Amino acid sequence: MIQRAAPAYIRKLFGSSSPHLQVECRYYTAQVATSLRPGVYSDDEECPVVDWDKLGFGFMPTDYMYITKSCDVAGNFEKGQLNRYVNIQLSPSAGVLNYGQGLFEGTKAYRQDNGGLSLFRPRENAIRMQIGAERMCMPYPSTDQFVDAVKQTALANKRWIPPSGKGSLYIRPLLFGSGSILGLAPAPEYTFLVYACPVGNYFKEGTAPLNLYVDEDFHRASRGGAGGVKSITNYAPVLRAIRNARERGFSDVLYLDSVNKRYIEEVSSCNIFLVKGRLISTPIACGTILEGVTRKSIMDIAIDLGYQVEERLVEADELISADEVFCTGTAVGVAPVGSITYKGQRIDYKIKSELVCKKLYSTLVGIQKGHIEDKRDWIVDIE
């Protein structure tokens, strides 16, 4: 049995001399979870033992998660609460396990240069989840409840937010059918859950340029499908394509449209942009690609900086003549592409200090850290 000194919230509950202060970790975790309320956060003062300089994009359990359920006819969600981060129980007949009725989002909490904590455009994530829920026949939390849940989760786990410049706290809201269902139909009950994890760079290459492979055999999405929403069902089908590409030394896969097989759509976990002079082009969101929050933000920033931005059908052949290619996403940030292999031909891009994507990313990070004015109310301060 593992023993350690109890944290501050245990000392407050039992008193500093209580024999309960040395207990098995899992025991006091389970006991305190039942008493937490929204707005009551961890006051653990000790910093987690993390090498922030080596932080990648791997799972690391933090202290708390937010959870609520919807089980009435109207689909209203109960007032949520914070619980200690623990495993959840699901029936084998849960809708999410049998029919994949689930959505997830990804947003981040940042530690600004002045020490304050903030979120970046969480309302956009709430709206995107609502759009996805409509497509998947699911009830959904209101925008205010979604944002409040993200805030609570970030504050409850604030000791896990990396120092400024070392990473961020990745926050994962989940919405899924937790009620039992046998026939193909919407589940009778839904769970909205939010957990968090400190992260660094998404790709193992870190900040090095990506090496992409255009896959002509596997497709991420098709017209009329759910490619345009952040459904959990969109991701497992691309694992084979990613594995094949990485076994050949590539960072990730760039997918083509499933009808004509000539237009680029997106990478497995991020959107893509081409730069030609002062023109920045990105595939149009027409139901088969996910409209990323970072994608939208970079487009606005580019316009502010005097670039022409267009959403359109982008032919794969245009990759050959592009001056620069880069990817965007909540997890990846803004990542330059060093090469793309298409039809057996490797296209190399010059990586120089004055890359357009570096200028765009510098502005984005400046807004997130608070040393560039936020003119669009993108930043939500939480402390």
From TrEMBL:
Coiled coil segments of this chain: none
GO terms under biological process: amino acid biosynthetic process; branched-chain amino acid biosynthetic process
Catalytic activity: L-leucine + 2-oxoglutarate = 4-methyl-2-oxopentanoate + L-glutamate; L-isoleucine + 2-oxoglutarate = (S)-3-methyl-2-oxopentanoate + L-glutamate; L-valine + 2-oxoglutarate = 3-methyl-2-oxobutanoate + L-glutamate
The protein's required cofactors: pyridoxal 5'-phosphate
Origin: domain of life: Eukaryota
Protein keywords: Amino-acid biosynthesis, Aminotransferase, Branched-chain amino acid biosynthesis, Pyridoxal phosphate, Transferase
N6-(pyridoxal phosphate)lysine, modified sites: K230
GO molecular function: branched-chain-amino-acid transaminase activity
Pfam families for this protein: Aminotran_4
EC code: 2.6.1.42
Keyword Nucleus tagged: no
Keyword Amino-acid biosynthesis attached: yes
CDD domains: BCAT_beta_family
Gene Ontology CC annotation, any one: cytoplasm
Family membership: Belongs to the class-IV pyridoxal-phosphate-dependent aminotransferase family.
PANTHER family hit by this protein: AMINO ACID AMINOTRANSFERASE, BRANCHED-CHAIN-AMINO-ACID AMINOTRANSFERASE
Entry protein name: Branched-chain-amino-acid aminotransferase
Originating organism: Solanum verrucosum
